Every structure is written in C-alpha cells, then in structure tokens.
Amino acid sequence: MAASSSPAALLAPPAGEPALRIMPMPADLNPSGDVFGGWVMSMVDIAAALPAIRRARSHVVTMAVNSFVFKQPVSVGDLVSFHADVVHVGNSSIAVDVHVFAERNPAAPVVVKVTEARMTYVAVDRDGRKRAVGPAAVLPPGGLQSPSDKELVLRVMPMPADLNPSGDVFGGWIMSMVDIAGAVPAIALARSKVATVAVDSFVFKQPVSVGDIVSFHAEIVRVGRTSITVEVEVFAERHPENPVVVKVTEARLTYVAVDEFRTKRTIAAA
Questions:
Q1: Structural domains for the chain
Q2: What are the pLDDT digits (tens) for 67-86?
Q3: What is the rounded distance in angstroms from the CA atom of residue 183 to the CA atom of residue 22?
Q4: Which residues fall within 8 angstroms of residue 239, CB to CB, at 6 or more apart?
Q5: Which residues pair with 86 in a beta bridge?
Q6: pTM here?
C-alpha cells in the first residue's frame, strides 16, 4: 500500500552513495533555459525504482506519485544527485523517498536541494503480474558496492534508446558518460570549465545492458600547469534477483582548464 505522508525535509545530502548521479545536457533544457521539469521527474522515477527493485528482487512498476516538490531550478552543468530510500513495504508495494541535490558553480562550489518526492511501486513478475514482496536480500556489510577506491562521480541507468543494433548498450554512450565522469573531478580541481584534449586509453571489458545500474568512479592521477589527467573505472550492477557487480570499462582521459573565452588557463594551486 502507498504511504501517505510527505517526505521529511533534508537540508543537506544524506550520507551514503546516491541512487543516481548525473549531469544534464543542453538537450534537457526547456524554452526558459532551465532543465525541463519532466527530465527531473523521469530521473526521480528511475532513482526511486532502484532501491525498490533491490528490495523486491524483481521488476517493479510505478503505481503512484505521492508527492513531488520542485524547490529550485536545475541548470546545465549542475551535478545532480538523487538519494533514494525505501520508507514502506507492503504486501506487493514499496514506497520510496527521493531527495535531489545539485552541485553547481565550480569557482565557488555550493550544493542546493532542488527536488523532493515520494513514489510508490508494485513488484511484478516476468509476465507483468503483481507479486508479493519477499524477504530482503542478505547483502555484505555496507551493501552491494562497486569494488573501487575512486570517487563515485556518476551513476546512471541506460535506456533502450541507448542500444546498438546488437542489443547491447552502444559503446559511444559509455564513452560519452566516461568523458563526463572524468570531467567532474577535473572541473572541481580546476574550479573552472575544462575541455577534453586526449583519450589516453579506453578498454571495454564487458558489454552493458539495459537495466544495468552503471557507476562511474574517477580519480585524478596527474596535474600539469593547465592539464588534468583522470582515470575512470566503470562498474555495472545487474540481475536484481541475485545482484552482482562487474567491471565493464576502464579509461584514462586528459583535460585542459579553460576560461570563459575557451582559452587555456593555468590551474591554481590547491
């Protein structure tokens, strides 16, 4: 059954990894120049579904939007984190609270809360029929996590539009996400925009499928006068009935810090 109370207010992001972390692109803008509210709503639906899928250990379908509040607009370039937690489990339903925060303004970084919502899902079997939610899976201490000591910078779920003709997720989609993931710590260090200047290495280890939860972990490994080199590791969480995490990609990319005129600039000392 659906929970009726509204999500509790959070003034700062909760501890722990977000369900999703993504950076909206210009294609996600509305005519006013802000990120389209429908994009935020669709990401909230995906983010909330992830803990519901883990708890149900099966597919789920969205049953209700119990509450949804936009607190601030989202802009291109914001790093948007979606924190989601199961707050109620019924016979076949699962209610999830989502709190959304945006990190912005790399020259003087701030984090603001932009959205909060409560969603309810129903567990379904492979034929789409409602099923009872079974006992929670027994996970290792700390939960099911990607085996990387690098920072989690992006977490996304590819959609059917991201498939190639063979039915796997298009390699170009993964490459574009890796480029964004590598840029996140580079922007934070440079405290400015950066431009990609080299892909020093890129290895695909396993294919990615629709429904995988794909996590991108990044670490700065070299800083020059104007350049920053970043290593990225990519892991996919799959099979909700018996979850596993596998490494799918690793890469190294180099970025250059640029000013508002796209001119190369010196990276200030930390």
A1: 20-124 (3.10.129.10), 151-258 (3.10.129.10)
A2: 999 999 999 999 999 999 99
A3: 12
A4: none
A5: 96
A6: 0.89
